[in-house]
Amino acid sequence: MRIDQLNKKIKHVLVFAMCCTIPAVLAAQQRNTFNITAYGAKPDSSTNNTAAIQQAIDDAAKKGGRVVVPAGNFVTGVLQLKSDVELHLEKNAVLLATTSRLDYGTASAAALIAATAQHHIAITGEGTIDGRGKAVVQNVIELLSGRQLTDRQWPVKIPEERNRPKLLLFTECTNVTIKGIHLINGASWIQEYRRCNHVVIDHVTVLSNEYWNNDGIDINNCKNVRITHCDINASDDAICLKSETEIKDYCENIFIAHCRLRSSANAFKIGTGSHGGFRKIKVKHLYIYDTYRSAVALESVDGAFLENVDIKKIFATNTGNAIFIRLGHRNNDSAYSTVNNIRIQKLYVQVPAGKPDAGYPMEGPLLKYPPGIKPVTGSVQSVSPWNNSGKDTAAIIYRHNVFPSSVTGLPGHAVQNIGIKKVQVDYASVSDTAMQYFPMNAAAQITEAEKAYPEFSMFGELPVWGLFIRHADGIQLKKIKFVMNGNDYRNAVLLNDVQHQQIKQVTAEGKFLQPTIVEKN
């Protein structure tokens, strides 16, 4: 089957899956219905209905029930969802977030809809929750200018995350169901689930390109999570697993399938926050498009374990990188992360010559040289480019040739038992030695970038274009094909400090330096 035929087939499967009827949830609760208009809520796009909607939720919580948002535009501030309550948005119902930053609190901004230590809660329906992120941030900036808010980043960078409200934040909740709704236009992360157990996110649409840090779905130290049939278009990571609280907790038993993803960062990512751990993660049937960074990024850089991850059947077009697996050491203590038992198979990625997310409202930032470092023409430099979205106009753009996929540990701390098979990555690039030149005989100079922010570009220019593996033990590569549709002055694959490797049917096509695979140390 040709790639274009496979692409069309996958799209049809996803469209069919997203159109399937959603079964009724929380049936027992539906016996008690609380329509917010009965509490005085007005769909006039201007009245603040926070008190009315919260009262409906409070009443529903007494016996368990469904709070109904009918068709219309209802403005609301911060809402607290409570146990045994389903918030149901009917077709053409819209919850419009208040655009007044102070409505979210005077210190850290509360999420628009939050729940803490609640059980059997749900948000369902065909309606929309609109964060109106651009207007919220504009108000944040006005308040910062008038010194009514403080911020550690502004005006050098964008206002920090604590000043920008999330849309949904559920903390230490059990039996959470999010189905069918549309989440749009956030000022920060769209939805975060923090230390929750038994979470179902199904047929949810996210469209959020109005501002930075608009992660589509963040799962933070949760267990027993299913994410299926979702359509995510976000200006930051589309689906991201995190383990970033001070409590040494971890993500476990996460299942993700049949989702359509676009991101101005990474499509599917584990990390960057990685203090506790991740285990028993299964991902399959993802369709990815117009994504700036990696289709699959697995990162443990703060001391966490990352193990037993199974990823398969991924199809990505116009995406900046295929696979990025990283063991780093950003933490200041002696604990080192571990990365063990990762399986990736049946993956196709098409990497373009240009910027994959060009033209989207919030593009990923261009790479820059770190402050104080300037390019030296004609010399080999190994620096970790700076991808910070700050407003430093003096920063020098880091011009580079195509970056390869990578699997990397640290000296004495190898990534272990990594299996990659049935993978094809197509590149459309043309490398230019006048832009960057990094020959294979300089491979020993490649920066370890131990404490750098993990990203597939973190090692700077590399002497290969297809796959870079370093500090690894137990590598299995089988039926892997790299296609260079342009031309490249470099080799395709470099294995450096790799022990116990099994390599079968790894090939490359196109114009590039031979041999295909180079091994060192």
Q: Name the CATH superfamily assignment of the domain at 3-214.
A: Single-stranded right-handed beta-helix, Pectin lyase-like
Main-sheet strand order equals: 24-25-27-28-26
In CATH, what is the class of the domain at 3-214?
A: Mainly Beta
Structural class: mainly beta
> How many beta-strand elements?
30
Amount of beta strand: over 45%
CATH topology of the domain at 3-214: Pectate Lyase C-like
Helix amount, in percent? under 10%
Uncertain segments of ≥5 residues (pLDDT<50)?
Answer: 12-26
CATH architecture tag of the domain at 3-214: 3 Solenoid
Distance between the termini: 40 Å
> Major beta sheet, specifics?
5 strands, parallel, barrel
Task: Specify the overall morphology.
Answer: globular
Describe this entry's structure for a reader:
The chain is mainly beta. The chain has a domain at 3-214: Single-stranded right-handed beta-helix, Pectin lyase-like (Pectate Lyase C-like), CATH 2.160.20. The chain has three helices and 30 strands. The protein has a five-stranded parallel β-barrel with strand order 24-25-27-28-26. It is globular. The model is unreliable at 12-26 (pLDDT under 50).
